[in-house]
Structures are given as structure tokens and as C-alpha cells.
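Risk register update: the risk of archive-format incompatibility is retired. Evidence:
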Amino acid sequence: MNAHANTTVTRPEPLLGGYYRGTESDNAVDAADRKLAQAEALAHLLYGETGEALRAMNDEIQDAIGWLLSDLIGEYRLFRYKADQEAASARTETHA
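Archived output:
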């Protein structure tokens, strides 16, 4: 008889929260946080020992990674702007 037959396997939650893993949310703050986490993860690959591997790649790949980081930061800024606009709108509706 299999000792694991009645074992229930549960998936642990990610350490940084579900929205870092790409779950969709209409909340602009969550979207901004997701983009910032992605940019931070990418940035960690750009220095130290992992950065050496990047610097050994051809110029086209290095440029693409730089553009990706720039795009993530730009998307973060857009989502933060949207979140600020939503917050201001909510405050206006509360005081009306």
C-alpha cells in the first residue's frame, strides 16, 4: 500500500504575495507593485556574479535587457500615476 495515497498536497503561497507572481488585479497599486518587483528582480541580475554573465552576452542582448528594465520602470510610473488619480478621485467623492 502506498503511504502517500491519502496525502493532500497544497501549494504554498509565494513569499512576496500573489500579485508578484502575475495574478491580475484591477488595482493600480498592485499593478505598480508588481512592475516594481519585476524591475527589482531584473536589476539584481545586473551586478555581481550574475552581472558578469550578462556582460559576457552580446551587445544586442544587453541592450534588450536594458530596454526591458526601462519599460518596467516606465510602466511602474504609469500605474503609480493611475493609483494617485484613483486615490484623489476617491477622496473627492468622500468629501462631496
